[in-house]
Amino acid sequence: MATISSVTLRGATLMLSRSNRLCPLHSAPISAGQRPSIFQRGMSVAATTPSINLHYLGTISRTFPLAFPSTNRRFFCVSSEAEAPVADNETSSSVSNTDSTLASPSSPSNDPVKDAAGTLDIRVGRIIKAWRHPEADTLYVEEVDLGEPEPRTICSGLVKYIALDTLQDLKVVVLANLKPRNMRGVKSNGMLLAASDASHENVELLSPPEGSIIGERIWFSLEEDKENQVSAASPNQIQKKKIWESVQPHLRTDSSCVAALGSHLMRTSAGLVVSKSLQNATIA
Asked: What is the Cα Rg of the chain in Å?
């Protein structure tokens, strides 16, 4: 059996070369004896032995058996922060550095969904003006200020749920790193995030708190985690890796109408993002 004995990459993903193609191994922490699943991607290169020492999240992993023979198997460490493999006699010093590694903003958490959500560029915006789409009865067209040199044009299917006059000068939450889409002749560059009940009969736009700053990036977690945000992924990465599709099912409002990713609340520097009245509602 081929084994991975410990981890040498900060925030690394492993990839196995099988039949002339790369199969990614799961980069989340795994317990001793578990098989890594093969669903996540990574980027970049490193090692070629059937057994690799890896340092993951500042802790030394135990031996993980993989369900294939070691013969002619090649493992690739994929991370832009790859470090040289650590010899066994360096293990103790690696363990002693656990706290500093975990404190690094670039270190992944134990939650791959939260890590993926951290690459979304969700921002506070303000609708400058809105009007009915001339070619689509269910769509509004909004001109939205995101703190950029020019406002963005965004199309939203809100006609059945929200009165047009309530959108004017409204602060909203915008997913800003989607690829632009042509919606019945209008190029839409972003998406307004809204909560909806199970029947999808009631829909409310998410509301940033009073005093929130136009263009500020929104995050999920504790107030002090604002400074630990990772860089947003490019629109191409969001589409190619289906990041939004992997995160969206985990977005809901809680019993207090606060928007959250699982137990991680959606925040701005001025406070929490909420729905006006929808509890335990889906967010999209």
From this structure: 22
- Residue 249 exposed, middle or buried by CB count within 10 Å (0-12, 13-18, 19+): exposed
Q: How far apart are CA 108 and CA 98, in angstroms?
A: 13
Q: Is residue 112 part of a domain?
A: no
Cα–Cα distance for residue pair 132/130, rounded to 1 Å: 7
- Which pairing describes strands 282-283 and 171-175: parallel, antiparallel, or unpaired? unpaired
- Looking at the structure, tell me whether residues 163 and 249 fall in a common domain: yes
- Residue 83 falls inside a structural domain: yes
Residue whose entry in the numeric block shows the structure tokens 């951290």: 118
pTM for the model stands at: 0.63
* 264 in Cβ contact with 114 (< 8 Å): yes
Of 77, 68, 73, the C-alpha closest to 20 is: 73
Q: What is the Cα–Cα distance from 104 to 10, expressed in whole angstroms?
A: 10
Segments in the chain below pLDDT 50: 1-106
Question: Do 94 and 126 have their domain in common?
Answer: no
Of the candidates 220, 209, 205, 232, which has an alpha carbon nearest to the alpha carbon of residue 263?
A: 220
**Tokens encoding 271:** 């406070």
Domain count, the chain: 2
pLDDT tens-digit map of 124-177: 999 999 999 999 999 999 999 999 999 999 999 999 999 999 999 999 999 999
**Contact (CB, 8 A) for 266 and 259:** yes
